[in-house]
Design a protein that fits this description.
Layout (H helix, E strand, L loop, with lengths): L2 H16 L3 H13 L1 H32 L2 H22 L16 H7 L4 H13 L6 H29 L6 H17 L2 H5 L29
Helix pairs in contact: 1-7, 2-3, 2-7, 2-8, 3-5, 3-6, 3-7, 4-8
Length: about 220
């Protein structure tokens, strides 16, 4: 993997991991409701889950999507249904620091597993492995997966930290309720591209064009951040 290609991928990872999207909306809500410290396992789960997904895609799983494109559509709708359930959980959160079983922060395994039903995470992983791993190099796949984890974790932490900073303004139940409803609505809104798009981020469609300076163009991702 060349230095140019790695730099281009780092820019891609920052853009996709740092901008608003399902993971970051949930981290913002978790930071506000549970605080940054209790959200760390959620952050680590996202980072590791995405890294493992990239490894799986790069080492052969993407071939299943090429052979059976219908799997992509099934994934989109299963993931969409799960996102709706998560939005409901955020909307019905009972209060800051509430430790009841139904309002605990997402666990490490839960956050890691969520990446496998998160349509946006699949789009990121498929695009990364088909655009930034020359000729399917196993070493390049490992580098891409590791870079995604290293870049994604600080981006995720920033969103959780922002949520933590909002806690001082959310100490009144009506304000917290309005915040959680807004976060739930934004999570639902993130499904809009999933409904209207037709799988633009499938592995056979990931662009490999080079810009004038030899850098791969950043792929167009339907789901932001």
């Amino acid at each position: 993997m060349t230095a140019q290609l790695l730099l281009a991928f780092v820019l891609f990872a920052v853009v996709t991991a740092g901008t608003p999207g399902p993971n970051n909306m949930m981290l913002l809500a978790a930071g506000a409701n549970f605080g940054f410290k209790r959200t760390i396992v959620h952050i680590l789960g996202i980072s590791c889950g995405l890294g493992v997904m990239v490894l799986a895609m790069g080492l052969g799983l993407s071939g299943a999507f090429k052979a059976w494109p219908v799997l992509h559509d099934v994934l989109r709708w299963v993931g969409g249904a799960y996102l709706l359930w998560l939005a409901w959980k955020i909307a019905t959160a009972k209060g800051i620091g509430d430790r009841e079983a139904d309002t605990k922060p997402m666990t490490f395994l839960g956050a890691a597993a969520f990446q496998w039903v998160n349509p946006k995470a699949w789009a990121m992983a498929l695009t990364a492995t088909t655009t930034y791993t020359p000729e399917g190099s196993s070493l390049a796949v490992v580098i891409v997966a590791g870079t995604f984890m290293l870049v994604g974790a600080p981006c995720s932490a920033a969103w959780a930290g922002f949520g933590q900073g909002l806690r001082r303004f959310l100490d009144r139940p009506p304000v917290l309720r309005a915040f959680n409803l807004t976060m739930a609505a934004l999570l639902v809104a993130s499904l809009y591209p999933l409904v209207v798009e037709t799988g633009r981020a499938r592995p056979t469609e990931a662009p490999r064009e080079l810009a004038a300076g030899g850098f791969p163009l950043l792929p167009r991702i339907s789901w932001r951040g």
